[in-house]
# Entry
Amino acid sequence: MRSVAYTDRPGALTAPNVAVLLALADAVHHRWPVSIRYSDRGGRRSERVLHPHGIVAHADHWHVTGQDAGVGEDRTFRLDRIPTRGCSPARWKRPRTTTLPTACCRDAPRPSIGTR
# Structure
């Protein structure tokens, strides 16, 4: 998995929740935002939309890093603080109108294909 990195000995880690780990790894791989429910070290719960960059094993725990859409900054979250059903594809609203750059497609040079 290219989405995972280790900063510690892999054998020293607490086993992550496999469902959460796989859902986040899939989101990293496909560059999908996810909605997570998270409990911080003080037990305060929150729901966040995260654009995950990667998963890292550090200090005996698994973490996901990414941009927290609510604050617009990169954050790190421990996987053991995300409940099994606390990770799902994020919902986003498609803009009503979409401007496609049709001019660039129309004027783009066409590759020439030679025959031998």
